[in-house]
Every structure is written in C-alpha cells, then in structure tokens.
Amino acid sequence: VTLVESGGGLVQAGGSLTLSCVASGSTLSINVMGWYRQAPGKQRELVATITNRGGRTNYADSVKGRFTISRDRAANTMYLQMNSLKLEDTAVYYCKASLLGINYWGEGTPVTVSS
User: Fold this and answer.
1) What are the CA-CA distances from residue 54 to residues 22, 49, 70, 73, 79 (Å)?
2) Chain-wide mean pLDDT for the chain?
3) CB atoms < 10 A from the CB of 105, how many?
4) Comparing 29 with 5, which gets the higher pLDDT?
5) pLDDT range class, residue 95, cuts 50, 70, 90
6) Based on the number of CB atoms within 10 Å of its own CB, is 38 exposed (0-12), middle (13-18) or buried (19 or more)?
7) Contacts 24+ apart (CB under 8 A), 37-40
8) Is residue 52's pLDDT more than 90?
C-alpha cells in the first residue's frame, strides 16, 4: 500500500485546511486509516482514525469539535477537514493505513499555523 498526502500549507490561526490521503495498492484489505501528526521536538501523536468499512471514527481530545475525518472508499481517499486551527496544530501530518497487521505510512504534509 502506498499513501500520498496533500493539502498542507500555511494558514492563520482560526483558519481552515483540508488534507487528503490517496491510497493505492491493496486497498481492499485496509482495516483502519488515520491521521497522525508530529510537531518539532515532539513524538508522533494520533489525530483521528476511521474504519474502512463502517466509517467509525475516533478523535484525539485536542481536535474534537474542530477536525473531521472522512473517507471516499470509491476514490481510495481519506480526508481531514481542519477548522478553527490553533498555533499548537502546527506539525507534519501523516496518513496511516493498517491492514493484515501491518502499518503503512505516507511521507507527511506540513501544516503551519501562524498568529
């Protein structure tokens, strides 16, 4: 499975961005997909996950009510709608897909929130 993220960039605090992750390869076997982020000097952390079949979602407390994860199974694409962005949302955002006990990661897309 190959994952390619896009949509990152520079945005002012309070603004919005939508990230996309396109999956290719053995996508039918994907169980769960998710967004993670890593800020400078910090560990990578969970942002949100979504199950591939049921569309069940899970969010980190820090983004609940501001971020929305979704997926288009037909297009093999996952999205992260980010609203009301804060300075602390600045990080590289990574897409992850889990299948058959293996995790696959994208290269990441940077998001910078400015004041």
Assistant:
1) 19, 12, 11, 11, 16
2) 95
3) 14
4) 5
5) very high
6) middle
7) 37/89, 37/91, 37/92, 37/93, 37/94, 37/111, 38/91, 38/92, 38/94, 38/108, 39/88, 39/90, 39/91, 40/91
8) no
9 exposure class (CB count in 10 Å sphere: 0-12, 13-18, 19+): exposed
> Which residue do the tokens 């009510």 mark?
65
How far apart CA 61 and CA 47 sit, in angstroms, is: 9
Structure tokens at 23: 């999956």
Dist CA 81 CA 4 (whole Å): 16
> What CA–CA distance (Å, rounded) separates 20 from 31?
18
3-state SS assignment for residue 16: coil
Counted residue by residue, the chain has a size of: 115
Res 72 pLDDT > 90: yes
The predicted pLDDT at position 29 comes to 84
- What tokens were used for 89? 């949302």
